[in-house]
Every structure is written in structure tokens, then in C-alpha cells.
Amino acid sequence: MANQRLTKKVVDAAETPTKNDAFIWDTELKGFGLRITPRGVKSYVLQYRMKGQPARRMTLGGHGNPWTAETARKEAERRLIKIKQGIDPVEEERQKVEHEKRRIAEEERKQREAEALAFDTYADLFVELYLKASWKDTWKSGEGVLKAVKPHFQKALPEITRSDVVELLDGYSDRPGMKKLVHSVLRKLFNWAVDRGDLDRSPIDRMKAPKTPPARKRVLSPEEVVALWHACADLGDLWRPFIRLLICTLQRREEVAGLDWSEIDFDTAMWQLPLERAKNDHPHRVPLNALALVELRSLGEKARGLVFTTTGKTPVSGFSKAKKKLDELMLKKLRDRAEQRGEDPEEIMLAPWRLHDLRRTGATNLQALGVPVEVTEAILNHISGTTSGIAGVYNLYKYEDEKRRALLTWSEQLTRLVSKNDGARNVVPFVRYAPIVAVQASDSGFRNLPFAEGAS
Prior knowledge:
The chain has about 450 residues and is α+β, with helices and mostly antiparallel strands. It is built from 16 helices and 7 strands. The protein has 3 domains: about 10-110, Double Stranded RNA Binding Domain; about 115-195, DNA polymerase, domain 1, CATH 1.10.150; about 220-455, hpI Integrase, Chain A, CATH 1.10.443. The strands form 2 sheets. Strands 1-2-3-4 form a 4-stranded antiparallel beta sheet. It has a 3-stranded antiparallel beta sheet with strand order 5-6-7. The protein is rod-shaped, with a radius of gyration of 40 Å. Mean pLDDT is about 85; it is low at about 385-395 and about 435-455.
């Protein structure tokens, strides 16, 4: 095709070649031209030569919006100016494409990182890979902390600042124990992230930990124990034996909640807590006293399966709701008893307490009953001065008979304490613990106790 100045009329009139591409070169701007393919596709091109290099050809754009002969000519002029400056337009385009590819890849990487390092996602990973393995007995409390703080950290881990954490901790100023726990869990999470290379530095590095709150010393009074025991009768056939078993055995809430029928030997009145469920990774044998056996038998003896469950698959939960109801029932019992004594029931208050305080209450009473401290610690499955260090290595005696005698004594003391429900303050002489040579495991006569089968 003859070379001529490219205009809309010339481009529209250009004929389609039958075999190879055809070109019309502009007579006004050297190197600017129109290419027509055998399929009739028309596009504007620029042919040029860099110094010391062979000729190169690049496509400016296809004919049609936005490219016309005039807009394509202006683009060709712009490119030729750069060529004179030693800038290769083909190489420039290639670099632009590569830059765009890198930009998109970087954005995708940042997106993946943001999703993987989002606090919500990372907290769940931390629970699965660290807490469950390293905090075997307390990982649920750590998980609970993380669930509670997730709404505060709606961002990726690297974006969390020290001030973010300070603001969160300030919200727990009225709960010093919780404040310290939150700080502890977050510190471990951030340090774990640093160890894995997901963070360069913890946002709370070198931050002073909140002060340890004073140790809890709450011990339920005899009057509160009476009110608690009888209040349990109004909690239903699941929570009544659960709470009463906490009182009778002095074991931990989660251990009782996960109790399986296969762990109980009714013939020897023994609960064998396996090491995978016992705190400190120590298997634990709990002699079952009269009251404990009564509560267990009220549920119906089985060979296996969870004792306390609503689903048949998972241990009972909803402790907070049950505890709230229990507090209401206890306060009513306390006030009813006060009214029977001729006192003003409105003056009766129930000081805050936790289910864990039942262990302290029982331990305190065991000491008052004359139970040696090492036996009390064996019942609680504590590892302390009498069972750790050199003593723990060389003293392997498990105090089986002493534990049974102590818990039977505790059962007798509870029986005396709660057997009267006339409102009188129960000033009951302590049933004294005494060492024994052997104790029969038989529970004969247990069914005749005044509160057997959940009676109030």
C-alpha cells in the first residue's frame, strides 16, 4: 500500500490484505504507521532504531476509541522524543508490565499476610499450637481471654501498638486478677509470634506486668455451707450432684465436670482421675465418701460415658449461669434461716465467692478437723513443699488410707452440719480425724443419710 499521511479517511479506506500483514507508513512522521492484518484488524505502530541496535517495532494501540490517527500520531511523537533521549519505549513498556506484576503480587502478599496475621485468626492458631500443648490444664482460660479481647484488636498483629494494649488493660483496672491474666496471655502470644518470625518485636516488650492481686482467702462460713448444700436441691438433677460433688471431694471444677463413669469404682468407692485430666500431669485417686456416693448414685450407675453432660458428648458447661442462680438460691436460704431466728433478713448479704473457693473451704475445714497438711495436699492433688523437690522424689507414699479417712471425716462433719434445716446457726463440734490402719470401702448405711437422693 502506498505511503501517505494517515487520516481517518485513509485508515477507514485501507484494504484488508489476503496473506501477510500490510503497512501504510505516514509521510509526515517518520516511523509512524498503520498495520492491517488479513483478518482486518487495524492498529497503529511505531518503528524505530536505538543507537547501535537493530530496528524495533512496537504497537501503539488498535484503531478505534481511544485511538485515532491523530491520537496515535501524538503518542508516536511522545515516544520518539524519549527515543532521542536514549529511552527504549519497548523496554519501558516491559518494565511497566513487570512493575505492575510486582505491585499486584505485593498487594496479594500483603492481603494474605493480613488475613493470616489478623488477630482473630492468629489468636486461634496460638490456642491450637501453643496453649493446648503448653497450658494443658489452663488453656481454656487463655482461650477465654483471647475471645474477650478479639473485638478490641480488629487489625493485623504487626499493626497492634503498645497504646492499643494499654487501652485494653485500662479497661480491666477494676479487676486486677483479670488484668494480670490478660497481660500474661497477650505477652505470651506476642513473644510466640516473635519466635516464629511473624513479628519483629512484641508491642509490649519490656512492659511491666500488672501487680499480682492479693491471694484469695474466701472461705465459706458454716452457715453459708448449709445454705449452699440445701440451695443445690433446687438446681435440678444435673447441677445439684455436680455442686455437691465439688463440696464432698474438693476436686477442681473442670475435673469434676469431665468425670467419666469408667473412672469410678463403686466396689472400692474410688475415683481414679487419669493423668491426662489431672492438673500437674499426676494421676489422682480420690476416695469417695458417703455423700459423694449418694450424689453419684442419684444419677444412676453406668459403665462409661460422661457423668455430667447435657449432650452426651461434651462435659457440662454454663457455669456462670448456674452460679448466678445458685447465689440467688443461697441468699434466699440464708435470709429464710435468719427470719426463723428472729433476725432481719434484709440485713443478710452473701459475699462474692467462686466455685474454686470450695476447695479452700474444704481444706480449711480439714485442717480444723486435725487432718495433717500433707494429707490435705494429697486430697487436693497439690504439688508444694511436702510433695516437691527432694521430698517429691523420695517420698512416694500416696496417703491412700489417710485420704479416705479424711474425706470420710469431712463427710461426717458435713452430715452433722446440714442435717438440721430449722434456721438455727449450726455450731457443730468437729468430728476429729484420727489415723487408721485400714478403712472399709463399703458404703453400707449411706442410703439412710437425711439428704440422700438429692433431698433438701
